[in-house]
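Support request, please re-run this one:
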Amino acid sequence: MSAALRTAIATVSVAALLGVWASPASAAEEFDKFAVESVSASLSSTQAGKHADMTLGVKLTRDGNTPYALVRDLEFELPPGVIGNPQAIETCTAEQLGDSSENSACPFESQVGTTLVRVVQPVPGVFKEPIYNMVPPKGTDIVARLGFIAVGWPAFINIRVDPVDFGLVATAEGVPSASGLSEAVSTIWGLPSDPAHDEDRITPKEAIFGGAPVGGRSITPGKPFFSNPTDCSLDRSVQVTARSYQLPDQPSSKVASFPPITGCGKLSFAPSFTTALTNPEAFAPTGLDTELTVPQDESPQGLSSSTMKSARVVFPQGIAINPAAADGLEGCSEEDVNFGENVDADCPDAAKIGTIEAEVPALEKTLHGAVYQRTPEPGRLFGLWLVADEQGVHLKLP
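Re-run finished. Output below.
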């Protein structure tokens, strides 16, 4: 690293600590010009269930090379069906990512893509940086986290689940202000171990100063990280919302079309369902244990199994329910369950009539929850809620 560049990085680092950023856009009317200028979304293949590479781009308004305001948050609302599996890939800790390009040391096995970023500090220009699968913080609604070095500073992309349509919401929160980020084009790899990515397996230091080996780096073959949706009937889109440090209460949003998904007829879907009574005696009260299994294809070159849309169970003749039989049994309303909200359900304990367990490949552990009796509604005297509030997921299925 040249002495001039070391001085530049040191100067900007001190400025960042002091909250100082020199910009010609100093007047409030210039800050008002901050907006999302354009958004793009593409796939390396539109085959349903394929482990394709997804590229998302966003460009912010700027005066020449200088953004009108400093971006604080960039939120990408991905369409339902776009899924990833962070458990299939090695992770990187915040300590390994480090606080600069100089001391960043995430394992190459944890790299899941690259991002092209346009910055004004510490060196103006466009740089290709590696993106890593990070360890998400515990006890939050963040189900997964990605991280990269924004040329000179660490940046994190927190991924949450939309409680309404279960789409993923990826947010770069607290973007390093000193970088002056104005444009980013990020590619998430469907199969990170694919030899096609060997040339892009680099360190943050190499991203700035070069030095990656000729021919790239190969890693041990592994599982897919990202999969295309498995429904070919929907028109999908991606919405990007940007907020600035100067005017955080004036967000700017723009929508781009997501590529149409094709080839759903090639997908497999072979669920199985079993039931067992807890008491086989005739005319006796009994519980019911059920198990629904949807086999998943996680092979590198395979296609993801079709996602289940709904399930209907018809009980045999003679099975009966009596909600009023249990003394003190209550109901849980839509308001109690906080339907469509990223918060825990607040159903009364007296409404609980069972438990659920769900094995989800993308989650670290088994998802545990409860079955609650729903409050009666016109035309529906008896219903249930399936509820699980764990590991950042708020599942409320009527």
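The two ends are 59 Å apart (CA to CA). The chain has five helices and 21 strands.
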